[in-house]
Design goal:
This protein is of the alpha+beta class. The protein has helices at 6-27, 118-132; strands at 40-47, 50-56, 61-66, 80-85, 88-98, 101-109. A six-stranded antiparallel beta sheet has the order 1-2-3-6-5-4.
Length: 137
C-alpha cells in the first residue's frame, strides 16, 4: 500500500485541527469525553484512488475516506455512500469538520472513554485498519 504524500499528510493534520476547532467545546460536555485523547487522523493508506484511514477523537473512532481536495461537500442532510472493503461493506456519512473541511466517516466505536493514552488510541486505530483490510474468512 502506498502511503499518503507529504501534502496529503498536511491535509490530514488540518482535518484533525478543524475537528478540534469546531467540535472540541461541545465534546467536552459529552459524558463519553476522554481528556487524554486529541483528534488525530491515523493509519491512512491508499485504497484504489482514495485515502482510507482512521479518525480518532476524544469521543469516537471512525473509519474515514478522504475526499479529493477539490471536491465540494455534498448538500446538508444525510449524504451517504457505500464502500466495499476486504472485510465487508461499509456505509459512510458526509461529516463537516468546520472551516470548509469535510470527509466521509463510518463511526465504528462511539465511546473511547476507557482508552488510557494517545498511544493506546493509535494502537486501536492500527488494529482497526488491519481488521478492515483483512479479507473475510
Amino acid at each position: 500500500m502506498q502511503p499518503p504524500s507529504p501534502e496529503e499528510y498536511a491535509r490530514l493534520r488540518e482535518l484533525a485541527a478543524a475537528w478540534t476547532r469546531s467540535h472540541l467545546k461541545a465534546a467536552k460536555r459529552d459524558p463519553r469525553f476522554n481528556p487524554v485523547l486529541v483528534a488525530d487522523a491515523l493509519c491512512f493508506q491508499r485504497h484504489g484512488d482514495q485515502l482510507l484511514g482512521a479518525l480518532v477523537t476524544p469521543l469516537s473512532l471512525s473509519l474515514v475516506v478522504l475526499p479529493d481536495a477539490e471536491a465540494s461537500p455534498p448538500p446538508e442532510g444525510e449524504a451517504t455512500r457505500g464502500l466495499s472493503l476486504p472485510s465487508g461493506d461499509y456505509r459512510f456519512h458526509a461529516r463537516r469538520l468546520g472551516d470548509g473541511h469535510w470527509l466521509w466517516a463510518c463511526e465504528l466505536l462511539d465511546d473511547l472513554s476507557d482508552v488510557a493514552s494517545r498511544e493506546s488510541a493509535s494502537r486501536l486505530a492500527q488494529q482497526l485498519m488491519e481488521r478492515v483490510m483483512a479479507p473475510r474468512e
